[in-house]
């Protein structure tokens, strides 16, 4: 009965029943199963400290060797491996996926062909963002263990969803239906597959709260919206709207850029690409276009290229003089795992006033602390840019500049119930900015953010930033609020 409550995502009721069974029959043959179930009930109800205590007690009760009653000899204890596997998975479920992976590798070194270990290795690979590795594990498992098809089909469905192979995910989920498999994990996969085929709305908005953000920019507002269709095959269509507007302390007129557009997006195992057309509706009556592709040959590397005609990245203040720009971008990312990633980016923005803006940047994102309630990342960023001398330019146009900064990003999980969670983040940035002809100055920033996540349904992020940055030798401080919504309906 306790197992049924746990399967129905009622962990508190399951905990009561597991404890009751263990009190009534602590030496029963099923006692180990009950204790493992109790650990999962504590984990799923968010009682992380109690979960670790119960797991530690279970480890103490299941040593590697035990005394055989018949012979009196010391023999291998089969309960040891089950508890060690439980320890590896609970470690990962409590957000220490690196620690869980190391424990899993140690177990596989001793029993490399154990199907239960291999199944959980595949699950861990999915948790760490390695769907191709996971697919290989589950494919081999389906061949080696044909009498246990449900484990392989579940893992292959999860890998297919991560790789945006929706038709393959549907085939694996159909296979699970034919096998009459109905547990919490499979139900979650079915719901995720259903939502992946729904329309999606993505909204982003930023509002300047005070003057002094970006060389005299004030009262600024920036927003973008995309509405995606349901996918057909690997494609989906979308419409978009972009708006930027701002006034300036040294200008009587306000600058504005607004455009509508439409396009198509392709998503698959090898990456993601899109192309589309835009048209200004702010009186400029100018068209634009864009195309980009991010190639992902494996679980680690992403190589991207993008081109934008009449790009929204052209300086907003330059639009007072009808300055437009075409943008080209190349990017390279190496994601070692869910703890560490590196990225390089180079771009050129060719402006209609004769300026060619060149920029390069690099960053290193590293997680140092990872737990069920708290995470700590640092992001090291290096950037440099150069511009041509354009005497008529009204926008901020440094001949050459560079910036180095480090951000400490802390995250707390304030509340959670399975896929529905509430998070808070605090980011602190310190750095130095150097501009030719104006010297160097300090940079600092503060970010306060909260995020609601509703599993595959969507997320809502909102926050506040305060940034101090030099422009032409004068430090300016700006405050902004922002909101991002991603929703499938």
Automatic annotation (TrEMBL):
Endpoints of the signal sequence: none
Residue ranges constituting the PgaA membrane beta barrel domain according to the UniProt record: 200-489
Cited InterPro entries: PGA_export_porin_PgaA (IPR023870), PgaA_barrel (IPR049003), TPR-like_helical_dom_sf (IPR011990)
UniProt GO MF annotations: poly-beta-1,6-N-acetyl-D-glucosamine transmembrane transporter activity
Protein name: Poly-beta-1,6 N-acetyl-D-glucosamine export porin PgaA
Source organism of this protein record: Chromobacterium haemolyticum
Taxonomic classification: Bacteria, Pseudomonadati, Pseudomonadota, Betaproteobacteria, Neisseriales
């Amino acid at each position: 009965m306790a197992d049924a409550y746990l399967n129905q995502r009622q962990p508190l009721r399951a905990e009561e029943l597991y404890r009751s069974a263990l009190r009534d029959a602590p030496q029963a043959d099923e006692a180990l199963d009950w204790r493992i179930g109790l650990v999962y009930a504590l984990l799923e109800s968010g009682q992380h400290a109690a979960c670790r205590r119960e797991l530690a007690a279970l480890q103490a009760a299941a040593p590697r060797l035990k005394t055989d009653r018949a012979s009196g000899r010391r023999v291998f204890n089969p309960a040891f491996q089950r508890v060690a596997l439980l320890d590896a998975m609970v470690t990962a479920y409590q957000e220490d996926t690196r620690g869980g992976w190391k424990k899993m590798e140690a177990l596989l070194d001793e029993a490399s062909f154990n199907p239960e270990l291999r199944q959980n290795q595949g699950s861990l690979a999915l948790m760490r963002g390695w769907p191709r590795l996971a697919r290989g594990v589950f494919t081999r498992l389906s061949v080696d263990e044909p009498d246990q098809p449900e484990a392989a089909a579940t893992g292959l469905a999860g890998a297919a969803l991560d790789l945006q192979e929706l038709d393959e995910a549907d085939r694996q989920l159909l296979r699970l239906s034919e096998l009459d498999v109905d547990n919490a994990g499979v139900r979650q996969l079915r719901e995720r597959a259903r939502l992946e085929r729904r329309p999606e709305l993505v909204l982003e908005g930023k509002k300047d709260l005070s003057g002094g953000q970006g060389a005299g920019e004030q009262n600024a507002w920036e927003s973008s919206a995309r509405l995606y269709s349901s996918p057909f095959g690997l494609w989906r269509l979308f419409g978009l709207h972009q708006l930027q507007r701002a006034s300036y302390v040294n200008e009587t007129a306000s600058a504005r850029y607004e455009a509508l557009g439409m396009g198509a997006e392709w998503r698959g195992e090898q990456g993601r690409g899109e192309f589309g057309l835009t048209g200004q509706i702010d009186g400029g009556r100018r068209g634009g276009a864009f195309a980009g592709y991010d190639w992902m040959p494996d679980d680690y590397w992403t190589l991207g290229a993008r081109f934008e005609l009449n790009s929204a990245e052209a300086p907003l203040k330059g639009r007072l003089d009808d300055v437009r720009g075409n943008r080209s971008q190349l990017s390279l990312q190496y994601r070692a795992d869910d703890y560490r990633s590196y990225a390089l980016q180079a771009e050129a923005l060719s402006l209609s006033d004769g300026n060619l803006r060149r920029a390069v940047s690099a960053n290193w994102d590293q997680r140092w602390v990872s737990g069920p309630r708290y995470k700590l990342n640092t992001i090291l960023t290096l950037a440099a840019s150069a511009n041509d001398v354009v005497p008529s330019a009204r926008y901020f146009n440094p001949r050459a500049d560079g910036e180095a900064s480090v951000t400490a990003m802390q995250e707390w999980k304030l509340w959670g119930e399975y896929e529905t969670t509430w998070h808070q983040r605090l980011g602190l940035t310190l750095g130095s900015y150097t501009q030719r002809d104006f010297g160097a100055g300090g940079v600092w920033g503060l970010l306060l953010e909260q995020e609601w996540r509703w599993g595959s349904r969507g997320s809502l992020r909102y926050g506040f930033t305060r940034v101090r940055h030099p422009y032409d030798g004068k430090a300016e401080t700006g405050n902004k609020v922002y909101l991002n919504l991603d929703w499938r309906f």
